[in-house]
Amino acid sequence: MDDPKRNSPCSEPPASESRREFLHTFSLAAPLLLLGLRISAVEALAAEPEAAYNARDHYYGMGIDVSKCIGCGRCADACKNENDVPREPYYFRTWVERYVIGADGETDVDSPNGGIGGFTSKTPDKEILRTFFVPKLCNQCTDPPCVQVCPVGATFATEDGVVLVDNDYCIGCRYCIQACPYGARFLDPRTKTANKCTFCYHRVTKGLLPACVEVCPTGARVFGDLKQRNSPLARFTRFNKIMTLKPHLNTKPKVFYAQLDEEVR
Amino acid sequence: MTQQSSRLLLVAALLVVGLSAARHFLVPKTFGQRGHYRAAAVDAIEKLPIRYAGREACALCHTEIVAMHGKARHQSVSCEVCHGPAAAHTEAPTDIKPPAPRTRGYCPLCHGYDPTRPTGFPQIDPVTHNPVKACISCHNPHAPEPPHTPEECGACHGQIARSKAVSRHAQLPCVQCHNTPEQHKITPRLVHPEKPRNREFCGGCHAQDARSPKEILRIDMQSHNSRYLCWQCHYPHQPEGD
To answer: Which architecture characterizes domain A52-95+136-265 according to CATH?
Structure first.
């Protein structure tokens, strides 16, 4: 601990080491700047709340067993209830898609109102080769493209691996919506800011399950902590062959699919 | 010190002071505490209200019904799947009562027939299955049991039953090929029906020398892909040639 600044709260992630060293050297040459930094550091220390939850102890992920999904859409409904997502059928943090692959090789995908009202409106009349439901949501990428493109730093990955949106600083430019390869973001029509799945961050930090996992009647969705060796998710990833969506994009999703079909994108 | 360099120094000092002051006032206070973002935003998201209380909360008061539900087929179905978000109810148990869907519209969201549902999942056709009657008049949603053991395999294996119904095997009952223990109807995932274990079973009808109606397709059992069981290539619920 030869460097006193290492004790300050802004000296954690090793990624910004070189920048910090640069700032430190620079500040030696400019004592005024150093003073300014010290003031903000002291203020930051005072503003840090006393919380029992430590984000660094967790790293969240979700498992989805495609073969267990019955397409009831309760997850999409619960998500809208829990997170105050607009009820119009264009805004979803999570939704369910129905894939019908016909004997002719043609694939039909539909998701009427995200699956909330059920899929009973249309029964495919062609000969079916295989068919299944796929729940979709933000993949909480380890290397999220949405975070890279945000021009104001309003979307970010937390220490526990959840990609969040800072509503107060989002300028509503929609770059992140364009950048997301999974179509998991939308612009909230009320606030004109980007909106997306938070893994129910306000719930998981209190030890509860995300709303979609809580209500999934067949256990098709599994939530857990990747840092824990005995979580339901650990069992899920041990006993299933796991696929992620669009692995070639190197986004490294933390939503893991079992029994995923090649037609799913 | 020359005049030029002192002016230059003054400009440099002004720049440093100006930039550090601007940084001090413009950068949000909690920015950079945990990463390249405002830590206060995370705290604000953490403080958002909870709407779904979680099944553990329900068990605190509704012990009897939770105990019954925990042993029944709906044990994996959380209370709030049907009763809706109940966090408000846990805070004001007498003032706010969670609703219960009692109409025919709700149960088919899970149990209405859809070929995309995994086979084995209990499904009915809401149009023909006891029309108008409310589901809960026969089925207890907390401990659902079919009023009587399903006679039709299609109650759970809807897609297979519907495929078979329009195929050349339509007349064959399921148990002709699947030896089904009675226990399969009670614990379907623990006791499975059997599949034909040898080629001779299908050969009973389809072999050259089989004593079956003449219009049934015949095959030379010796020369025809003898290393496979018949159903490893042919789908018996919808055999080709229809």
So the answer is: 2-Layer Sandwich (3.30)
Give the residue from A27, A39, A43, A70 with the most B CB atoms within 10 Å of its CB, the best one to mutate: A70
- Sequence ranges of the domains in chain A: 4-47, 52-95+136-265
Q: Tell me which of B186 and A169 has the higher pLDDT.
A: A169
Residue B181's nearest CA partner among B198, B189, B164, B193 is B193
Partners of A31 on chain B (C-beta within 8 Å) are: none
> Rounded mean pLDDT of A187-215?
96
Rounded to the nearest integer, the mean pLDDT of chain A is 85
- H/E run at residue A221: strand A221-225
Give me the residue label for tokens 């056709």: B125
- Distances, alpha carbon A219 to alpha carbons A143, A171, B108, in Å: 28, 38, 18
Residue contact A123–B108, C-beta within 8 A: no
Min Cα separation B54/chain A (Å): 7
Count of CA atoms in the C-beta half-sphere (13 A) of B229: 9
pLDDT classification of A183: cutoffs 50, 70, 90: very high
Whole-complex ipTM: 0.83
- Quick: pLDDT tens for B175-191: 999 999 988 887 888 89
Question: Which pLDDT score is estimated for A33?
Answer: 45
Crossing angle of helices A31-47 and B3-26, in 10° steps, is 10
According to DSSP H, which parts of chain B are helical? 3-26, 39-46, 55-61, 63-71, 79-83, 87-91, 108-111, 158-165, 174-177, 199-206
Identify the pLDDT of residue A202.
97
Cα gap B118→B115, rounded to integer Å? 8
pLDDT value at residue B132: 87
What integer pLDDT is reported at residue A123 of this predicted model?
58
To the nearest whole angstrom, how far is the Cα of B57 from the nearest Cα of chain A? 11
